[in-house]
Write a structure and sequence with these properties.
Elements lengths: L1 E6 L3 H14 L4 E5 L10 H6 L3 E5 L7 E5 L3 E5 L23 E6 L2 E7 L9 H23 L5 E6 L24 H13 L1 E3 L28 E6 H4 L2 E6 L15 E5 L12 E3 L1
Parallel strand pairs: 1-2, 7-8, 11-13
Antiparallel strand pairs: 1-12, 2-4, 3-4, 5-6, 6-7, 8-10, 9-10, 11-12
Length: 281
């Protein structure tokens, strides 16, 4: 299975290049974030013509997640256990849920496409929401893997956290002044490992950004950040045979500000470790 994640930043604007990428790179499962549309507005046609079925979850022109798969999808869910909601000025456990998660069972693998809240600012209520959201994700993941320790589980998407200083090439993002790099956000991201999932791209690709702001020549200057991840359970980690970050997708006409991250999975036993492909394109 070739699994990819991509914050497409409006699928209706970028459907042609999204489908073209999926076909060209032989992607089996593509998790998308920030589709920015309702399911009835999603451009299913080009995906279906390319051999993909799509499950989408969106409520308005913001947020939104989807999964496109060549393989059948079952047990589709649009929230995980305990997932909190958010609305400005609304406090309490009954805040409305945003369209930030969609999960499906695909060829025995539970895949979640996730768009973690941004946080906005260190003194913004959205940051508390973000931390709560990540903590709920940790607890839901831990419970799922406790119930089935051998479950092939993948949490993929835009996590809006820069875990390490080496992941930050943007001089405007500074510890102590910016979200994404605060100790609390990093701790919440690292806590996911306690739930039983790990980043399988970093061991193969220690360097490489996945996002560059559209403003102030961030991409030409390579002032990017790494916030898009593929976190998997041990069962899936043992099946990983390669990884790639597709930097060139930030180029060209109307690119997303994010680029795809891809992993290859071989469930039948793969190559020796010394032969693992490490690709940065």
């Amino acid at each position: 299975m070739r699994l990819a994640t991509w914050n497409v930043n409006s699928i209706r604007t970028r459907v042609a290049r999204t489908v073209e990428f999926a076909v060209r790179e032989d992607i089996d499962v593509l998790a998308m974030q920030e589709i920015k549309c309702k399911p009835e507005q999603f451009p299913y046609g080009p995906f279906e013509e390319a051999g993909y079925h799509v499950e989408a979850h969106g409520l308005n022109q913001w947020n939104g997640v989807a999964i496109a798969s060549r393989l059948p999808m079952t047990d589709v869910q649009t929230s995980f256990a305990g997932m909190p909601g958010f609305a400005k000025g609304h406090e309490g456990p009954d805040a409305p849920l945003e369209a930030r998660a969609i999960g499906a069972l695909i060829d025995g693998v539970r895949v979640w496409s996730l768009y973690v809240p941004n946080g906005r600012a260190l003194d913004d209520p959205h940051l508390a929401y973000k931390l709560h959201w990540l903590d709920a994700l940790k607890k839901a993941t831990a419970a799922e893997l406790e119930a089935d320790p051998e479950l092939p589980l993948a949490l993929v998407g835009d996590f809006n956290v820069i875990p390490f200083d080496d992941d930050n090439g943007d001089p405007d993002i500074v510890v102590g002044r910016s979200t994404h790099v605060s100790p609390e956000e990093r701790a919440a991201f690292f806590a996911l490992a306690e739930a039983g999932v790990s980043d399988v791209v970093r061991p193969l690709l220690p360097a490489g950004y996945t996002y560059w702001d559209y403003q102030r020549l961030k991409f030409p200057r390579n002032e990017g950040i790494r916030i898009d991840f593929i976190l998997v359970s041990k069962t899936l980690a043992d099946a990983v045979t390669g990884a790639s970050i597709h930097r060139d997708e930030r180029k060209g006409e109307q690119p997303s500000d994010h680029v795809p991250v891809v992993v290859d999975l071989d469930f039948g036993g793969g190559e020796d470790d010394d032969d693992l492909p490490m690709i940065f394109s």
